[in-house]
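Narrative summary of target 7.
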Amino acid sequence: MRASVARTCLPSFLALTLLLACRVAYGAETPLAAIPDDASLVVRLKSPEATAKTVVDLVKAVDADLGRGLELARPALGLVISNPSLAGVDRKRDWWVAVFARTEQEPAIVFAIPATDKAAIREALPATFSVLDHDAWVVYSEDAAVLDRVKARLAGDGASLEKVLSGALLEQFNAGELSLFVNVPQLVATYRTQLDALVEQIHAGLNQLEDFSGAQQDVSLGPIVAMYRTMVEGALQALQDARGLAASVDFEDGGVSIGETLLAKEDSKTAAFLNRHAPSELKLVGQLPPGQVGYFGLAGYLEGLIAWGSQMEVKMYGGSAEAEKAVRELIAGYKELKLGDLASSLELGDFESGAVRGVTVTEIQPVEKLKELTRSTVTRIGNVDTPSLQQRTELKPAAESYGDYGADITHVTQKLADDGNPFGGQQMMELLFGAEGMTTRTIYMPDRVLQTLGGGRPLAERAVESLADEGKSAVTQPAWTATRNHLAERANLLVMIDGARLIADFLRLISVGGIPLPIDAQALERLELERSYTGVSVTTGNGSLAVKSWIPVEQAQNVARVIRAIQESQEANEDF
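Modeled conformation, tokenized:
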């Protein structure tokens, strides 16, 4: 029995002994206990020596010269903590900086730096700093009063930041090599006067915009102003309700990962709003055609967004009584539908078949009800008559066939009062969407609706094919999958953009269109940019808003190549 007890307890005893030994050797794991709970910002740099090397290697992979320059600047890291030589500093353990915002003074900054030699740190610091020891840390600041508050906190006076930076916020803060915590309630309380003044200025500007809009005969900006007011009010409510914001950056071999978490107070309006709409896996995005420059996914209150967009269009252009009646019918009809996820993609083409091409797929039931609703309202909402603009919307039901599915074709034409304007009305429609003009193909499937804008029949065929055969969809692209795997598994919003190719395609279009640029279309084609995507996911729930971003190294490399190509073209033109 004694042997059994020994075998059971000895490993635990040894582990506890090792833990206590490490605690004695290294002190507190973090200096959070020393930081008062009214700190405005806290920044942590994880293992500076290792992180700096990772960042340099990552930058070298994008641009070798820039990476070498950054490597030469690494010793200057000591300037950030007012210890240029890094004397006595432990470069393998985390560095911490706390900022205390004040109404009438400049913010006070407190450094908490791990030490291998505390005396060496004290000697290296300028005489203007006050210094104290805390376990294995040297804590110092040029503001003696703030450092006295840190001393009081360590003596048991008041609460530490550990009470504020906890739960989901602490989990996000600990996730990266560079981390930031924002004590939102403290900042709002400190800068309340300035914040109120800013809000007044914003509302005054919106009032002026609304007055200007009222003097115009064609387009009313009232709906847009109302939208901005709602956004301002929502942002203010979020500031009032926020417990805090944490962000982290993680540098990996393949790219940079960024995470952010906003946590709202329980039972607040913001928490209720964030909990209202469940996230989704948004698998529909991966079923879109491959090779697009942008992908977008949305899960949530789609019927509300659609109704809001329809109302805005009618109100902006002074819609007729018939158009307003159609909007009311549309809103009532959407309340009887069950909407799932929405997925959309974008590609840039050419001026002949359309510069802008888009695909949108929406999960919806029953589809037949939507078909009836759309056919009965789209032309009534889409017809506009103002002194300077006449817009007509024509709908051709089941005008084309795609396998087992028929496609409604909606065609929008515009006529401006000044027909001499080459960049307005129908001319612009044809420039953006090709000879067909602004034409939408709507294909009704059993549990979803597919719409294409521009690109003609070929784009619609590709979209139908990708939805029917996963082997011909976006999810088969390694670059697409690599970015998707770095984002949240479930999200309310998903955005993936091949930014480098988007820039190159846009410049190519402008160049072909005859607008002089410092680079020609052939030079852009020769770049042969490797496909990659920068991605962002947004997830709500549990009173939080979580954002994850991924920037692959290939995307940074491609952007750098585009920039270099432009610079080389400029230099060649100057020499010529």
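The radius of gyration is 29 Å.
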